[in-house]
Write a structure and sequence with these properties.
This protein is an alpha/beta fold. The N and C termini lie far apart (42 Å). Helices cover 36% and strands 23% of the residues. Bound molecules: NADP nicotinamide-adenine-dinucleotide phosphate. NADP nicotinamide-adenine-dinucleotide phosphate binds next to helix 1, helix 5 and helix 10.
Length: 347
């Protein structure tokens, strides 16, 4: 059994914990909590062991929260850490906790790939470079936007290759997640230097890619538009859609009217955490004109990276083939079932 510790129990950490605990090959030794708040009780209800920083034990026990040990002990006892700290926290954890023990760790997409706060020398995308992560000590799992872009770009590159001259992506990102307490600001914000472009180029270095990123006042889901320019006339819409029909974690929807409808359907269908765990191409708004294809797709920001983290574990620790890992992820996350259910609902 592989012993996994999840350092952080926010939007990503709690999802990782519920997914990983369903795998019989993995022993989830516990999760870390840093604030003695009611999310601790949720973790207790879910039968997760709770580890807290040594200096906070009293604060937790004073509030009658059960504590199973310190974060330091959990790191020592596990085989690998899934770091789910808020952006930038992974770097500090690596320096303080993981590196001194040479403990392998997966970092999330909010961490830096380059510069003095870099945590790893590769970003994983299961569609592109799954095998490259095998046996590595530190790897970043690309963010939801970055994972989604790889999932759309790679099948296009494999099918049309040299015929493509460039990719332009406009990322329209949600302000906050549904369970975040922070307020949604009434503003559309731009980002002069989105990290997503360099992140994708980390695993698709040859891509002629330009990314713009905006944040809009919504909590539901991202909606992105990828424009793919061809050197000559673009392929037909049918040919584009067929490229994605059998792809893992891509649903092709026809009648959804917006991101909220997709999210609410996932909740109504009882998907765990209300996640679809995938991207959804909105077929009725895919356009092909002259040399350009426009693919609008929504991207389940919270759910998307959870199977990706799981696949990364399969590569780093179990050194499984991608096919075998996809089969395991499919069974744990019911990806094909969810894809079929969504396609049926929005046909
Ligand atoms: N939210 C998304 O949709 C999304 C999608 C893809 C990737 N990501 C990436 O995933 C990472 C986590 O995001 P999130 O949305 O889960 O953040 P979040 O909801 O703000 O949760 C962050 C968690 O970090 C914990 N924490 C505080 N100090 C810590 C430390 N030193 N080490 C470990 N954990 C610590 C906090 O614990 P307490 O609550 O106990 O204080 C909190 O639970 C970020 O890199 C983000 O960019 C997020």
């Amino acid at each position: 059994m592989t012993k996994v510790f999840i350092n952080g129990y926010g939007n990503i950490g709690r999802r990782l914990a519920s997914a990983i605990s369903g795998d019989k090959e993995i022993q989830l030794i516990g999760i870390a909590k840093y604030s003695a708040d009611e999310k601790t009780q949720e973790a207790v209800r879910n039968h997760f062991n709770i580890y807290v920083p040594e200096e906070k034990i009293k604060e937790f026990t004073d509030k009658k929260y059960r504590v199973n040990g310190t974060v330091e002990e959990a790191v020592e006892n596990c085989d690998i850490v899934l770091d789910a700290a808020k952006e930038g926290g992974g770097f500090l954890n690596k320096m303080k906790l993981y590196r001194p023990l040479n403990k392998p760790a997966v970092f999330q997409g909010g961490e830096d790939r380059h510069g003095k706060y870099s945590v790893a020398d590769m970003i994983h995308n299961s569609r592109v470079n799954y095998d490259k992560a095998s046996g590595r000590t530190y790897v970043i799992q690309g963010s939801c936007n970055v994972s989604g872009m790889g999932r759309i770009m790679q099948p296009m590159i494999e099918k049309f290759g040299e015929e493509i001259s460039r990719f332009d992506v406009t990322l329209i990102r949600r302000w906050a997640d549904l369970e975040d307490s922070k307020q949604v600001k009434d503003s559309i914000e731009w980002n002069p230097n989105p990290h997503h472009q360099d992140d994708v180029k980390d695993f698709i270095p040859t891509a002629n890619l330009y990314v713009d990123a905006y944040k809009v006042p919504s909590r539901m889901m991202h909606l992105h538009q990828m424009s793919i320019r061809f050197k000559k006339k673009a392929p037909s819409k049918d040919s584009i859609i067929e490229t994605f029909r059998k792809e893992f974690g891509i649903a092709i929807l026809n009648s959804a009217t917006g991101t909220a409808q997709v999210r609410k359907k996932a909740l109504e269908l009882g998907f765990s955490h209300g996640d679809t765990n995938m991207v959804h191409i909105h077929q009725e708004v895919v356009r092909v004109e002259e040399d350009t294809v426009k693919i609008p797709y929504s991207d389940d920001q919270t759910g998307m990276v959870i199977p990706e983290n799981y696949l990364l574990l399969q590569s780093m620790v179990h050194k499984r083939s991608r096919q075998e890992a996809l089969a395991k992820a499919n069974s744990l996350f019911q990806i094909d079932y969810k894809k079929k259910a969504l396609e049926e609902e929005f046909k």
